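Field: COMPLEX_INPUT
Field: COMPONENT_COUNT = two
Field: RESIDUE_TOTAL = 750
Field: MODE = joint
Values follow.
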Amino acid sequence: MPRALPPPVLPQRVHIIGSGLIGTSLAMALVRAGLVVSVADASPTNEALASDLSGARIGAGDPVDLVVVATPPDVTADVVTHALATWPNAVVTDVASVKEIVRAELDAKEVPGRERYVGGHPMAGREKSGAIAARIDLFEGRPWVISRTETTDPDGVALVRGIAEAAGAVVRLLSPTEHDAAVAAVSHVPQIAASLVAARLADLPEDAVGLSGTGVRDVTRIAGSDPVLWTQILTGNAGAVAAVLKALAADLGQIVDALDSLAAATTPDGQIEAPGARAVLARTIAAGNTGQARIPGKHGAAPAAYAVVTVLIPDEPGQLGRLFQDVGDAGINLEELNLEHNLGQPYGQLELSVLPAVAADLTDWLTARGWRVHD
Amino acid sequence: MPRALPPPVLPQRVHIIGSGLIGTSLAMALVRAGLVVSVADASPTNEALASDLSGARIGAGDPVDLVVVATPPDVTADVVTHALATWPNAVVTDVASVKEIVRAELDAKEVPGRERYVGGHPMAGREKSGAIAARIDLFEGRPWVISRTETTDPDGVALVRGIAEAAGAVVRLLSPTEHDAAVAAVSHVPQIAASLVAARLADLPEDAVGLSGTGVRDVTRIAGSDPVLWTQILTGNAGAVAAVLKALAADLGQIVDALDSLAAATTPDGQIEAPGARAVLARTIAAGNTGQARIPGKHGAAPAAYAVVTVLIPDEPGQLGRLFQDVGDAGINLEELNLEHNLGQPYGQLELSVLPAVAADLTDWLTARGWRVHD
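Field: COMPLEX_OUTPUT
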């Protein structure tokens, strides 16, 4: 499949079907970008709310050149099919979080005009849903997958790229199969793991739940997700998710065996003999280190990819401003930063992550300007 | 076992053995509280650093009435044994994250004076370790488990409660068995789940890892933990962890079966028939909702005290300097900040944590200066 993206093209008129979080946020961003946008929703209330929030008109009215299907995933293929028939000259894209099943259904039914369908998946969301939760900057800096096959019309890809970039997203090109395997690992399996860990807390004594700290809070934060939506998502990506879960379950089985042998080998005087068992545990945590380090962004790759320069910041208003003015004057771009600010301590510790090549320069530059720096 | 806590009593002299994150942070907090504190560590460097950071003296010197063993868990019982013999009039407590195994070893070896041992576990930590990562507020608002049995000296419990509350922690009373079962569910199993999910990312194509969002980041944040330390922790609590993991593995098995049947039942035209399979998925997510709702406090206890204002930062040198100049001009002090910055993306999302009372002012101030802000 060709990997190169055609240059972005802005559509003249965009019609968005579905006025939930994604559809309404997209309408807001595209109206801001100066496009002519219309919205439609099965619920007149949502439709009117989306129009009020975004300034988009209600109902397609004029002929459109791009239709965005922003409905729940389980009806996406049907709505796409209907849109292809209703607007025979328009490109139709969607925002469903699974892609292979939509493509497969259109092909199996030999839906007329399906070459005008361009699969899409903006990787953006919030814990809150619905038009009321919409944000004009929901897609800023987020990946937006365009999922096409050999038969997909390149002009259609150009239009979808156009609106994705107009909304501030970063377009990535993946085949439907590549996309579904990727989201199984980076989205669907983490959701299941969070839910399974959280479910273990349901019957715990109050005293025990009271010991919860930031670790379990982070691991289970997304366990608050909507069961209905997630049942649709997981059903639509069952094969890819099952494949990842089976590999995870195999690792889990090894850990349980290792813990069983350690528990059985624990003698009252604290001596534990269980050859190889500790190695299984250490390998598991180490493998997690490796995988976690690959995640882009502040929780992931940065510590490995960047050099960290730590600066002590006096706990006074304006000090950070003075520091970043100095950093700005140095012309050095900060990749990431994190402030360790301890109440009751006179200093905060600010960690500046920069490209390794400029770390020494930054240290010298800031030291020369009176900052207490260590790297 | 009596559930009532004796009133707190402040010790005259506290000696802390082990100058890692916990030992050094505790020294800082207790010196601030006005206690006479001494530190000791197998490493003279760590010992000196802990003394510099906290103001505690090096070496016990005078007789002490409370000894805190803050060593790695695999040597805790031995160090406690030695401390009970070295200070025959002192109460000895520890900070090990597993309690039954320490108690069992002291009993099995019939260690003299073991009635003076009071098991403790401050539920506080960071991804970073060592004295250099110490924070004076590490224990603020955190649970500190006191784990005693019928034979434990009540006066000793009163002393441990004294230092725990002096460090800002909230004391909870649990038996060693209750404690170990609780931390298995709220700490050890979440760690394993995070590591297992992160390990699935290790061999993923770069395109796929690039789709990672905040969900997988949160689930895998603690997957960066130290394999050696965690092997010790899991080994020391093998039985309780295995019990929780087996229940989790059973749930996981049901999900894999449900996904397999859904995948097998998926026909090319998108119709999926697999009676009961969807219900298994929905029940899993719903059970996660229930368990997650029981977790006290908000996501990341400390930050919950602040209001978060999020600003979009163009990925250009000097932009952060300009922003913090504006923040400084506002005369508003930043409590914490985090930059969410993904490579290849035009914007970073900077989270500014401020006192709730000034959040709206900061939002207006920055918006008026052309920043894209949402709270």
